[in-house]
Amino acid sequence: GQLVESGGGLVQPGDSLRLSCATSGFVFKNYNMGWFRQAPGKERERVAAIDYLTPDTYYLDSVRGRFTISRDNVKKMLYLDMNNLKPDDTAVYYCAASQTAVSISESRYWGQGTQVTVSS
C-alpha cells in the first residue's frame, strides 16, 4: 500500500491548514487510519485516529477541539483539518494505516510525511 500526504506548509499562529492523504494498494475502507507527527528532537506521536467502521475518532489532548480527522472511503482519502495552529504544532505529519490499533508499532503503511511549520 501507498500513502501520499499533501497540504503542509508555513503558516502563522492562528491560521488553518488541511492535510490530505491519498491512498492506494490496499482496501482503504477496511483500515483504521491515523495522523502522527514528529517534531525535531522529539518522538513521533499520534495526533488523531479514525476507526474504519463506526467511525470513532481519537485526538491527542493538545489538539482536541482544534483538529478534525475525517475520511472519504469512496475517494480513499484521509484528511486532517487543523485550526488555530500553534508553534507547538510544528512537525512533520505522517498518515498511517492499520488493520488493528493505529499505533507506531502496529500501523502497516506509512506516508513519507509533510512539513507543517507554524511561525510568526
The H-and-E topology, N to C, reads as EEEEEEEEEEE
| Strand residue content | over 45%
Q: What level of helicity do the residues show?
A: under 10%
Number of strands: 11
| Helical stretch tally | 0
Mean pLDDT: 97
Low-confidence stretches: none
**Compute the gyration radius: what is it?**
13 Å
Largest sheet: 7 strands, mixed
Classification by helices and strands: mainly beta
Question: What sort of overall outline do the alpha carbons produce when their principal axes are compared?
Answer: globular
How would you describe this structure in keywords?
120 residues; seven-stranded mixed sheet; mainly beta; four-stranded antiparallel sheet; 11 strands; 49% strand
Question: What this model shows, in words?
Answer:
There is one protein chain. The protein has 120 residues and is an all-beta fold. Strands 2, 4, 5, 6, 9, 10 and 11 form a 7-stranded mixed β-sheet that branches. Strands 1-3-8-7 form a 4-stranded antiparallel β-sheet, with no helix packed on it. Strand 7 and strand 8 form a beta hairpin. The mean pLDDT is 97.
